[in-house]
Amino acid sequence: MTDNCPSFPPQNTLKEILTRIEGLLAERGTASPDVEARLLCAHLLSLPRPTDLLFHLQHPLTPELSRKLSQLVSERLSGKPLQLIVGSVDFHSVTLRMDAGVFIPRPETETLVEVGLKFLGFLSGGEPVKVLDLGTGCGAVLIALACRTGFGGVGTDISPMALALAMENADRNQVGDLLEFRQGDLYSALPPSARKFSLIVSNPPYILSSQIPTLPPEVRDYDPREAIDGGEDGLGMVRLIIEEAPGHLLEGGMLAVEMGEGQGEEVVGMFSEAGFKAVETEPDLTGRERVVSGILPGS
Ligand SMILES: C[S@@+](CC[C@H](N)C(=O)[O-])C[C@H]1O[C@@H](n2cnc3c(N)ncnc32)[C@H](O)[C@@H]1O
Q1: Would you say domain 89-295 falls under CATH 3.40.50.1220?
Q2: Which of 2, 27, 101, 207 has the most crowded CB, counting CB atoms within 10 A?
Q3: How far is the CA of 227 from the centre of ligand 1 (A)?
Q4: Tens digit of each residue's pLDDT (9 = 90 or more) over 30-58
Q5: 3-state secondary structure string, the chain?
Q6: For ligand 1, atom 7: residue with the closest CA
Q7: What pTM value is reported for the model?
């Protein structure tokens, strides 16, 4: 067998196997080989948490599990994202099921959730609060917001596959009754009679088309093109979201949009041009500017 399809001798304990997988993933340049090795083995043994592996460390694997593990590790070594292999992702405060063909939520997008939560925490009384998530994907941002606040909302996407997964994830996280998912191009997914929203969030495609071929294979080959390609300057969809937001926001409502490195100044300018006040940029956990938000003033 090649290193891309490693075999695990039957006499090896799980502890020895974990060390071997960690080494293989490290050789391939995986950022957190220890964490990934544990997640793969926990998935193999259907354990709810990687810490549950502690009870199995001294045992060998059955030949069937050993073969299955070879397959999982070989998929990972060939570049398939871990989240698609184990079929789930932990995002902010929720666990979401993942499927091929739907954008995998990234840790940096948790900043968008935090900006939304901070704003929603200030709201009280008045109209019932509703959140709109444009390009909801598997529902990550909207579901995390609903789980933490109990507020309802609408998630839109052009991808029917993403929306089916978002609905399933909302139900799995017990917020299915609070949320609605609609297919369509940005705001046109909303019915003409839709009430205005207190908060609009979006993590739209914002990578320059010319940069897509240079992305790591894990992104380029697995994230759907329509989820990452932001057009010639990367900001085509960001621009539309900002320009049309005032027509869908309540007075005093917030728009918060994720963007890429180096796009901050231009995006802040778009918010100001569209009439937003208190425009702010929020960095992600790595310190890179990640989210721009602004408040729609009263007339
Ligand atoms: C970067 S992904 C973000 C997904 C999710 N919000 C997240 O953060 O994990 C962008 C999403 O926008 C959707 N999308 C792309 N173009 C769209 C459009 N014109 N209207 C609505 N959604 C769109 C894609 O299908 C994809 O699910």
Answers
A1: no
A2: 207
A3: 5
A4: 989 999 999 999 999 999 889 999 999 99
A5: CCCCCCCCCCCCEHHHHHHHHHHHHHHCCCCCHHHHHHHHHHHHCCCCCHHHHHHHCCCECCHHHHHHHHHHHHHHHCCCCHHHHHCEEEECCEEEECCCCCCCCCHHHHHHHHHHHHHHHHCCCCCCCEEEEECCCCCHHHHHHHHHHCCEEEEEECCHHHHHHHHHHHHHCCCCCCEEEEECCHHHHCCCCCCCEEEEEECCCCECHHHHHHCCHHHHCCCCHHHHECCCCCCHHHHHHHHHHHHHEEEEEEEEEECCCCCHHHHHHHHHHCCCEEEEEEECCCCCEEEEEEECCCC
A6: 105
A7: 0.93
